[in-house]
Amino acid sequence: MKRLVSLVLAGLLSACSGLSNDAKLAQQNHWEQLGYQDGMKGRFARSDAALDALHPLTADEKAKYHQGYQYGIEHYCTPYKTYEHGKDGVAYIGQCKNTPHETLALQGWEAGYQYFLTHSDQLWPNDE
């Protein structure tokens, strides 16, 4: 829990500068935090080339990024969170593949997306 709190606090503090959050985390060598944020946003893990474009890093720093990413994606891929994303109309593109709760996450998203589809007709008036 302490680790999660420190990761979140680091992310909040880094949001206060003019640099993009990703660039600031890279500049400060907070690779685990960057990975965690990518995972929590449902992004796919960045390639080594994409990480190096932010800031050249060592194998140990890449490992920290992937450790943070794994932690973040496992939190993103819970049935409740994927349900909320589906309900908001966010597409599922396989982000939760090979995670511990992949099946439940996909079921959550499908249920939320079904809700989105059945209620999206109310968003657009039918002029026919």
For the record, give the distance between the C-alpha atoms at the N and C termini, rounded to a whole number.
Answer: 54 Å
Overall mean pLDDT score? 85
How would you sum up the global shape? elongated
Q: How many domains in all?
A: 2
Q: What Rg is obtained from the alpha carbons, in whole angstroms?
A: 17 Å
Number of helices: 7
Question: Can you lay out the helices and strands and say which pair or pack?
Answer:
Layout: H1 2-14, H2 21-27, H3 31-40, H4 48-54, H5 59-76, H6 79-87, H7 102-120
Helix pairs in contact: 1-3, 3-5, 6-7
Explain this structure to me?
By secondary structure, the chain is mainly alpha-helical. The chain has two domains: 2-76, no CATH class; 79-120, no CATH class. Helices cover 65% and strands 0% of the residues. The longest helix has 19 residues, at 102-120. Residues 12-17 have low confidence and may be disordered.
Question: Which features would summarize this protein structure in a list?
Answer:
128 residues; mainly alpha; 2 domains; elongated
What's this entry about, in short?
Helices cover 65% and strands 0% of the residues.
